[in-house]
Amino acid sequence: SDILHPNYDDPSSSLKYFDIAKALTLGCNITKEGDYELSWAKDGKNVSDVESLNNRFRIIKEEKKFIISRALESDAGVYTCSVPVLNASRTINVLANVIVKFESTEIGKTNMVEGETLTLHCLAFGSAPRITWIVGNQSLSASTDHIQLQEDDKGVENARLTISAVTMADYTDYTCEGRNNATDISGKPAHVSITVRIRGKYAALYVFVGIIAEVVVLCIIILICERRRNKTEIEESDTDQSPDQHKNGHNGNASELRQRKS
């Protein structure tokens, strides 16, 4: 064991962790002088014979490194670096850090009406993730009378949160926190949050009634203004007599008198 020194992140647990979709680099220094070649295996099988690693890794012999340039969740496992001629080997427990996110279809469902059912699914990726929910300021790792926590199709415990009939008190932030053995060492759990807004049952009705009331008031105002305008026009037409109209009236009377005399 003193001959080989792997690049552990936590030597006490022989642990090495990586981020999904980023490079995974395993190193194993040989302290004994000589030109020795390392052999790499995953879960007891030579890496060249592991189908999931086919054409996805490279070994740098000079640097004693095994590299996967774009690691997948499935690349987690127990790796072994060994020098058979020296009868020396070391194991490396490789874990994928946890990633959490909400389903994309849930992002647009943050506005709800009182009494509806709220369902949030926290998708967790990584090695053996553990889910905890933070609802407002309350941390939940088990179901309550009001909130139900269930595992999802992947078998991740507490991945689904359900409230059968939301109330105004459920208007708050919902945070999914993902942990595993890797985050326990790094101290960096994964988080994703969403704000759920709750409207009252009759909120939409109140808005509708308000719009109708505004329309009615506007119509009444328009009707009153029209009546006043029409009344004013009638009064003006009765009292408006121009000088030309008076003159024409007198001339007409004089002509009529002359015709009668003749």
Automatic annotation (TrEMBL):
It comes from the Eukaryota. SMART domains: IG, IGc2. Keywords: Glycoprotein, Immunoglobulin domain, Signal. InterPro entries: CEA_cell_adhesion (IPR050831), Ig-like_dom (IPR007110), Ig-like_dom_sf (IPR036179), Ig-like_fold (IPR013783), Ig_I-set (IPR013098), Ig_sub (IPR003599), Ig_sub2 (IPR003598). Pfam families: I-set, Ig_3. Residues 11-83, 84-195 form the Ig-like domain. PANTHER family: CARCINOEMBRYONIC ANTIGEN-RELATED CELL ADHESION MOLECULE 1, CARCINOEMBRYONIC ANTIGEN-RELATED CELL ADHESION MOLECULE 19. This is Ig-like domain-containing protein. It comes from Culex quinquefasciatus (Southern house mosquito).
